[in-house]
Design goal:
globular, binds glycinamide ribonucleotide, Rossmann fold, two-stranded antiparallel sheet, alpha/beta, 6 helices
Length: 202
């Protein structure tokens, strides 16, 4: 079975969805590690409850991004991590980091990329008056919310929804789509072909 690590900065509902999918046997992986750059993040409490080892890499404890990432890499190596899962990890990884792990880092984003990149995608789509939004899972490259798309799922925004309702529906969709995308990776069914990802038949 492959080893996975989740990197998160906040609430960790996607971390939870992944941990739950493993517990239910829907996802076959060892969730070995949660890494957070935020010592206050709620995801750390979720990890404790799920009995997943947690590691805090507080950026303020390091003189530069290089040292910060080196600490993370040491942890990933010591746990023999096969797939790095960004789930609300609000930091851009450096080109050197990506070079080391290209094709082995995935991210989830709450919009249909390439629209509404950034940290407030749900609110941005809501404020824009979009009628459709959705969720994207992609391989990570050097740019923010960018890289070969693995799965995308649209969501119709219903007339009269509040921002909170939209957030709830987007998050529910994320919690379904992320374990699915991870499972495809772990089964060796994702083939990176330049910019594109081909999903191989089972
Ligand atoms: C998720 O909605 C995720 O898509 C988003 O952060 C949230 C984290 O929620 N990521 C981005 O916006 C990346 N640009 P969670 O901590 O409850 O999993």
């Amino acid at each position: 079975m492959k080893n996975i690590a989740v990197l998160a900065s906040g609430n960790g509902s996607n971390f939870q969805a992944i941990a739950d999918a493993i517990k239910k046997g829907k996802l076959k992986a060892h969730l070995k590690l949660l890494i957070s750059d935020n010592p206050e993040a709620y995801c750390l409490q979720r990890a404790a409850k799920a009995k997943v080892k947690a590691f805090i890499a507080d950026r303020r404890d390091f003189s530069g991004r290089k040292d910060f990432e080196e600490q993370i890499i040491l942890k990933l190596r010591s746990e023999k991590i096969d797939l790095i899962i960004l789930a609300g990890f609000m930091r851009l990884l450096s080109g050197e980091f990506i070079k080391k792990y290209r094709g082995r880092v995935v991210n989830i984003h709450p919009s249909l990329l390439p629209v509404f990149k950034g940290a407030q995608a749900i609110k941005d789509a809501f404020d824009y008056g979009a009628k459709v939004s959705g969720v994207t899972v992609h391989f990570v490259d050097e740019e923010m919310d960018h890289g070969p798309i693995i799965l995308q799922e649209p969501l119709k925004i219903k007339e009269g929804w509040s921002l909170e309702e939209l957030e709830k529906n987007i998050h529910n969709l994320e919690h379904k789509i992320y374990p699915r995308a991870i499972s495809l990776f772990l089964k060796g069914r994702l083939r990176l072909e330049g910019r594109k990802v081909r999903i191989l038949k089972p």
